Amino acid sequence: MSGPSARGRRAGGGPTGRPAGPRTKQARPESRRVRPVLDGARLTAYDVLDGVTSRAAYANLLLPQLLRERQLEPRDAAFATQLAYGTLRATGTLDAVLTGLVSRPLAELDPRVLDLLRLGAHQLLDLRVPAHAAVDTTVALTRAIVGTGASGLVNAVLRKVAAGGDRESWLATLAPADEVQRLVLSTDHPRWVVEAWREALGTEGDELEAALLADDVAPEVHLVARQVPREELVAESDGVPGPWSPYAVRLGSGDPGRLPSVQAHTAGVQDEGSQLAALALTRAPLEGPDVAWLDMCAGPGGKAALLAAVRPAGVRLTAADRAEHRVELVRAALEGQDDVEVLVADGTAPPWPAGGFDRVLLDAPCTGLGALRRRPEVRWRRTADDVAELVALQRALLDAALAAVRPGGVVAYVTCSPHEAETVGVVAPVAARDDVEVVPVAPLFPEVPDMARGEHGQLWPHRHGTDAMFVALLRRTR
Ligand SMILES: C[S@@+](CC[C@H](N)C(=O)[O-])C[C@H]1O[C@@H](n2cnc3c(N)ncnc32)[C@H](O)[C@@H]1O
Asked: What 3-state class would DSSP assign to 94?
């Protein structure tokens, strides 16, 4: 880790310059301010940004680890989370503001200085942190982490950010050229994602903005009752039944790891949208035998575990993944289940004979754009080029899935992304084959409103409170 540890240099002082709230005993008038100490929350937020920038860390893994190690007070931990996630989500807008205030291109700045500028600017633009506190604490961090020279630059730039007002005022100053650009700046998404959402939703209006803004809301914890009655899990967790999946319990917040059913693996954590995607495979009508199911891309095993739990007696489940370490996770997820086979296999060059399965789940590797609310940095890390690369793999896997299923059998093609190219774009050429027919998804879920995307299924965080899962059902006719 490049920055000082929270418990190391001058860390652990009381919170300095938190979002405006009731004045406390420690609050001082501006004229009597003392030099701010490095507080654990800001330092932890910076260390998350630095991990993401310099080591391509995942914020949702790094932040909990740092919070555990540093044992921050709950209030500081909440502030560190708000700062780190908020700054990561807002990176594009923050950079648009900073670009006009720094004489060099941002890419030429020391990456640590750029992260510190973003951290300070986020407090000024989006949080009700008093300007002097946002600037002074960021300057102090810069001095400690980078050095005195850089702290002068950070001080000067952040003062200009503060002088420009809050986000609203800055949006007016930046004067977006068109509606897409306005959404880019107001909802903190890259332009290509705004355009992809517009295409997938087929709308420009308020719903597009609502869909984008939903990516900034922390998701509820969803549980899946696999081998425990749902009512028991509801009672045990103090949650509420999920509205769509008969196995889902929505927990709101709280640590699911404390629940006995989760500890016993009879229940688990699984987004309700992922549950519906797996259930779509099971609900597709089928003629003839229904005894052999395949999950081609099973790691880490969430959907395989649900399929194993809900399959009718006599169904044998094969679960495969190309990555050995993910296959180990599948094994753990399926532990104790009879009649399952777990193996390492590349789905595009599979060891299983053609036509051997009645139902095949292809939960394809994808951009994961449908789960942006879980991973704040992903919207800026992914690029439009990633889509093309994944589409080639998705196509090859879908061809292989259709080869694995017997005539009359069904393939569920699933992505955690609503992007047109990864969803409808992959399915359309296959659906046009004369040995394939599309099974409409929405009629299989009459209880779920607004999930039809043509003949396929599409869930959205702003409509369903789930990740943006896509599912298409394809039957081989001969
Ligand atoms: C979206 S994840 C699957 C999630 C899983 N179904 C679940 O619910 O837990 C996609 C998986 O595809 C696997 N994968 C990627 N390329 C593959 C290939 N050619 N053959 C088999 N698995 C592959 C990845 O290792 C990854 O585990």
From this structure: helix
pTM: 0.90
Is 326 touching ligand 1 by the criterion CB < 6 Å?
yes
Q: Which CATH class is domain 30-169?
A: mainly alpha
Q: Which bin fits 202, alpha (ψ -120 to 50), beta or left (φ > 0)?
A: left
Catalytic: which of 43, 362, 416, 441?
Answer: 416
- Return the residue whose CA atom lies nearest to atom 12 of ligand 1: 297
Tell me how far the alpha carbon of residue 364 lies from the centroid of ligand 1, in angstroms: 6
Q: What is the 320 CA–ligand 1 centroid distance (Å)?
A: 8
Query: Residue 160, annotated ligand binder?
Result: no
Residues of the chain with CATH 3.40.50.150: 272-476
Which residues belong to CATH 1.10.940.10 in the chain?
30-169
Token reading at 472: 């298409």
pLDDT in tens, 251-278: 977 789 999 999 999 999 999 999 999 9
Q: Is the CB of 159 under 6 A from ligand 1?
A: no
Residue 416 falls in the annotated catalytic set? yes
- pLDDT tens-digit series, residues 390-446: 999 999 999 999 999 999 999 999 999 999 999 999 999 999 999 999 999 999 999
Q: Is 295 helix (H, G, I), strand (E, B) or coil?
A: strand
Cβ(368) to ligand 1 under 6 A?
no
321 labelled binding-site residue: yes
Backbone φ, ψ for residue 316 (5° rounding): -100, 130
Burial class (CB in 10 A: 0-12, 13-18, 19+), 372: buried
Q: What is the pLDDT of residues 99-141, one digit of tens each?
A: 999 999 999 999 999 999 999 999 999 998 999 999 999 999 9
Considering only CA atoms, which residue is closest to atom 13 of ligand 1?
297
Q: Within 10 A of 7 (CB to CB), how many other CB atoms are there?
A: 13
Domain boundaries 272-476, corresponding CATH code: 3.40.50.150
CB distance 298 to ligand 1 below 6 Å: yes
Which atom of ligand 1 has the smallest separation from the CA of 274? 8
Closest by Cα among 53, 68, 59 to 7: 68
> Quick check: CB of 321 below 6 Å from ligand 1?
yes
Residue nearest atom 10 of ligand 1, based on CA coordinates: 365
